[in-house]
Amino acid sequence: MGIELLTYLGLFAVSLTVLLKASDWFIDYAEAIGLSFGISPFIIGLTLVAFGTSLPELATSIAAVFSGDSEIVIGNVVGSNVTNIALVLGIVAIIAHPINLEYNIWHIDMPYLWGSAFLLYFVLLDGHFSIFEAILFSVGIVVFLFYSFKSEEEETDKERPSVGWRQYGMLLLGGVFVYLGADYTIKAISGLSQLAGIDPEVIALSAVALGTSLPEVIVSVSAARKKKASIAVGNVLGSNVFNTYVVMAIPSFFGTLTIPMGILAFSLPLMIALTILFGIMANNKKITRWEGILLLMFYSFYVVTLFQPTS
Predict the structure, then answer these.
(1) For labeling, which of 73, 146, 210, 231 is most exposed (least CB within 10 Å)?
(2) For residue 159, is pLDDT > 70?
(3) Is the pLDDT of residue 84 over 50?
(4) What is the mean pLDDT of residues 64-89?
(5) Where are the domains of the chain?
């Protein structure tokens, strides 16, 4: 058992490292290609970078469906969204003290984030996620992208970097390593949960959610240190929209998703509460250090509650 445990721990560490590094790789080349098409840095951050930092969630969720552990998908989505708001924003608010938003996220982005959270709750009330609902969520992300690009101002005077076949090839290679890293991460998680007797749902809501949210942590903390904390807010907001719509929808096309009812009782309502709290905090275009501490208190409560034995 000891050797098997160390093997799974080693596999988890290596595969998660590959997953995160490949995601970072993907983000860099996606940003370069986006700039070559004249897309502004703000839209790249809200869409391409947000999608890139959500790649680990998507890849691990698809791999989970193929491996027969589809209950990980909803745990991954909800756990990552909670982690993004409570942990990532909490850390950024403490580092930036305060976060000053340079744009009005209540124009399009925050209402859309709230809508995605509410829609996820009502869709899952029956404990089933149908193909129709997956198509509906796919339409939701298309609408989000359409309005994000439509709201962008033209910047024709900016010089566009040139990209060639190498950038496209590296982007594809990064995507391949993202999937391989995700596949072996799921295998390690399944093995560890069986050895420890822990429900895969709890592992997905905690360890997987934290691990796959590391790109958001890294990008957001880096932005805060560069005095660009509003980028971190956009990254978290965009990532949560992508998690809800894309990470729920795409894996369901590869197999039926198992929806653990326990998520509907605690984790999903907490995700919605934190989403509402996020909107309230950002209403005055500022998130203070004390609000960041409050968010970290929520995250601590969330993690401790997950690992409490159920009676």
Answers:
(1) 146
(2) no
(3) yes
(4) 88
(5) 2-153+161-306
CB atoms < 10 A from the CB of 128, how many?
Answer: 12
The DSSP bridge pattern shows strands 286-287 and 99-100 to be antiparallel
Residue 107: Cβ within 10 Å count: 11
Please state which CATH number belongs to domain 2-153+161-306. Answer: 1.20.1420.30
- Among residues 184, 179, 108, which one has the least CA distance to residue 146? 108
Query: Tokens standing for 123?
Result: 């869709």
Residue 183 corresponds to which amino acid? D
Sign of CA dihedral 81, 285, 94, 18: positive
Residue 103 backbone dihedrals phi, psi, to 5 degrees: -140, 160
Which amino acid type is present at position 46?
Answer: L
pLDDT tens track for 107-121: 778 899 999 999 999
What would the pLDDT profile of 160-214 be if each residue is shown by its tens digit?
Answer: 667 778 888 887 887 778 767 767 876 787 677 777 777 766 776 777 777 667 6
